[in-house]
Amino acid sequence: MVLCFGIGALLLSWVPWLGMLFAVAAAIFGVIALIRKQPFGYALTGLILGAVALIVAVLITVGFTAFVGGRSAQSGRRSIPPVTTTPEDPPPQETKGGMPHRRLHPSQS
User: In terms of Cα–Cα distance, which of 59, 61, 53 is closest to 12?
Assistant: First the structure.
């Protein structure tokens, strides 16, 4: 039974969160099998596979969480800075013809 959990945990270690659950279960069942003096080879192999699956599952889960968390944090950021007007650059004024009138700077007059 422990060997089956170890193999399943190793196969599911690539699925975030689910792989961690199976890996922890495989490690716990591996320790229980060693304590209860079940066949040593199967218990040890299941425990080792569970430990390797736990390491892989933690790395995959942390990487996935960082990738998804980073992507959602970037989506709220503005890529174009807001346009601000300065006192030296007043908004254009309408003239009688409908065309905006551009004021000349005092040095250009």
Answer: 53
Query: Tell me: the pLDDT tens digits for 12-45?
Result: 888 888 888 888 888 888 888 888 888 888 888 8
Segment 39-67, tens digit of pLDDT: 888 888 888 888 888 898 889 888 888 88
Q: Does the pLDDT value for residue 71 go beyond 80?
A: no
Residue 81 is classified by DSSP as: P
Which ranges constitute the DSSP H helices of 1-109? Answer: 2-12, 18-35, 40-75
Each as own residue / partner, the long-range contacts of residues 20-24 (CB below 8 Å, 24 or more positions apart, any chain) are 20/54, 20/57, 20/58, 20/61, 22/53, 22/57, 23/50, 23/51, 23/53, 23/54, 23/56, 23/57, 24/50, 24/54
CB 34 within 8 A of CB 51: no
The tokens 């229980």 sit on which residue? 32
- Distance between CA 78 and CA 66 in Å, rounded? 20
pTM above 0.85, yes or no: no
